[in-house]
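User: I've been trying to design a sequence by hand for this structure and keep getting stuck. Would you show me what you'd pick, starting by listing the structure so we're on the same page?

Assistant: Good idea, let's start from the same input. This is the structure you sent:
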């Protein structure tokens, strides 16, 4: 039987992990959370242990597998896991069969955790998702390690190590060839899919991509929903982009699963022509991934590698870990910017604006939000934002300042069916009415799933919250679009307000928006009021509320309280 310790060391005592857990977004917090699932995991494995009594090799391997939730990051356990896996395959077990066994266990854990309930808390869903990523990390990593040892992969798609070897060989031969880094995923849909469907997706995606290729091309599994494609025997670099475009277009219809479900896939493809873009295999792979990152960042289907991407990516990577730590350790900050009634100068609300310092410098909020969204932290950030907003309201009340607060939500938030429930819980916890909150939405809030977004807006309205349309005039505005939204406020984009002094066209735009808001029974709010002239102009046009540096810059809570008391007394 296995010699692995029944009391694995704590995370801080672990030896350096030999499995690439970071590639599967498994943090220390995730690994700690996994420990709570040990009992469910062992229970799901128990029938398979009982069935393996006559097969010593399988039995020993399953005993090792029992410790997966407790010891995934432990180097000693990892070595026994790899050795046990290799023992099984050397005795005739197909890797695909082992793969299926573990996803049967995952499906049993899913049934135990989620059951048939139509409403499952986000905490439980996140916990199960963490378990699923952990099992994938263990299986796919051991397949890659086994591939490296054998120099080939018999039952699974060849991995990154084999791809690198092939790139090296072609670079040495001086051939013209292409390398594609392809991501295909759908975070929202994957979260709700059962394990039986999830385990099919890697195979179905690989088959889908392979069907677009020529016989001489090759496909490999990469990291975290990534596929690598070598385009061999090319005549011109243009063939690389041609192939990428063809693959991208093939994903326009949703992916059909064996269960009959159809899942839309979000793809991004990075394109590299070699040896033009890199002189060695490692840099070639990095270049392809940088190009894919650029494609996703610019919402394009495909993108070529460009040299400046390396510097930009390095700057971005330097912010990732500190930002995640700031988010998980509650070290982000919300500043308050006053919103003033233009008739009497009274501060009636304040907008909450994200601020984060790294190495003593403020990181632009747009960059922080982009990193949060591109790394799948948006739900975590929104949870933090809602809770912090309610805590801030409570602290303002304690200071005798009974104003409202507003903050921004995105289109993704409007598709989160748990958001109204979270907000309701926080309002109850802090004993505050929803009317004290204004939720600012972008004009793209209904573009992806109009029915769900409108339903969530109505649920937020039912809590008493006000809804505002932010940056109006810069997106997809139309009268028919506007009248269907359950919003009470329209925020006029600051670019129009600032331009009013110099541009008659900008002045006409602001007048039109103010008149439109008034006709629809909505409150117009002018952003970007930075001087007396702008104040007088928007007031003359009938705007009722202003926000901008003229009244106050964004301030930390303590400074805002001092500003308010100095200007208005103690409330």
């Amino acid at each position: 039987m296995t010699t692995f310790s029944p009391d694995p060391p704590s995370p801080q005592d672990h030896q350096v992990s030999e499995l690439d857990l970071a590639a599967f977004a498994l943090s220390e917090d995730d690994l700690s959370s996994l420990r709570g699932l040990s009992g469910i995991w062992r229970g799901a494995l128990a029938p398979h242990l009982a069935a393996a009594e006559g097969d010593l090799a399988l039995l020993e391997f399953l005993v090792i597998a029992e410790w997966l939730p407790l010891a995934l990051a432990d180097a000693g356990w990892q070595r026994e896991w790899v050795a046990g896996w290799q023992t099984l395959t050397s005795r005739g077990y197909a890797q695909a069969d082992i793969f299926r066994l573990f996803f049967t266990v995952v499906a049993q854990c899913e049934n135990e955790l989620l059951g048939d309930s139509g409403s499952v808390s986000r905490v439980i869903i996140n916990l199960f998702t963490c378990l699923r990523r952990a099992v994938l990390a263990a299986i796919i990593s051991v397949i890659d390690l086994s591939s490296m040892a054998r120099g080939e992969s018999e039952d699974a798609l060849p991995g990154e190590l084999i791809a690198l070897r092939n790139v090296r060989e072609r670079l040495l031969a001086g051939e013209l060839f292409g390398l594609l880094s392809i991501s295909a995923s759908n975070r929202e849909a994957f979260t709700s899919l059962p394990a039986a469907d999830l385990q099919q997706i890697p195979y179905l995606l690989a088959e889908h991509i392979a069907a677009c290729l020529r016989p001489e091309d090759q496909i490999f599994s990469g990291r975290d929903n990534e596929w690598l494609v070598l385009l061999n025997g090319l005549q011109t670099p243009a063939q690389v982009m041609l192939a990428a475009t063809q693959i991208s277009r093939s994903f326009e219809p949703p992916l059909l699963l064996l269960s009959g479900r159809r899942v839309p896939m979000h793809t991004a493809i990075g394109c590299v022509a070699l040896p033009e873009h890199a002189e060695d295999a490692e840099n070639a792979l990095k270049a392809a991934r940088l190009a894919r990152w650029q494609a996703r960042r610019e919402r394009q289907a495909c993108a070529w590698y460009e040299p400046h991407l390396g510097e930009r990516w390095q700057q971005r990577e330097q912010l990732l870990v500190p930002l995640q730590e700031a988010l998980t350790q509650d070290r982000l900050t919300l500043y308050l910017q006053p919103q003033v009634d233009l008739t009497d100068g009274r501060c009636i609300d304040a907008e909450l604006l994200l601020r984060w310092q790294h190495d003593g410098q403020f990181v632009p909020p747009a960059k922080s939000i982009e990193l949060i969204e591109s790394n799948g932290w948006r739900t975590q950030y929104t949870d933090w934002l809602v809770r912090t907003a309610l805590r801030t309201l409570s602290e303002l009340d304690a200071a005798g300042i009974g104003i409202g607060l507003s903050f921004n939500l995105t289109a993704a938030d409007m598709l989160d069916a748990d958001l109204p429930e979270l907000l309701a819980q926080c309002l109850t916890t802090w004993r505050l009415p929803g009317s004290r909150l204004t939720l600012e939405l972008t004009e793209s809030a209904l573009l992806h799933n109009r029915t769900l977004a409108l339903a969530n807006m109505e649920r937020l309205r039912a809590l008493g919250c006000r809804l505002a349309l932010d940056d109006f005039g810069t997106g997809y505005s139309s009268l028919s679009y506007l009248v269907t939204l359950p919003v009470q406020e329209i925020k006029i984009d600051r670019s129009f307000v600032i331009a009013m002094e110099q541009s008659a066209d900008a002045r006409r735009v602001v007048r039109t928006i103010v008149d439109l808001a008034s006709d629809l029974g909505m409150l117009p709010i002018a952003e970007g009021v930075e001087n007396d002239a702008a104040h007088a102009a928007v007031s003359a046009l009938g705007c009722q509320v202003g926000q901008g540096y003229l009244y106050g810059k964004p301030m930390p809570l303590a400074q805002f309280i001092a500003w308010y008391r100095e200007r208005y007394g103690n409330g």
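That's my pick for every position. To get oriented when you compare it with your attempt: Residues 334-568 form a domain with the TIM Barrel fold (CATH 3.20.20.450). The chain has three domains: 1-153, 157-306, 334-568.
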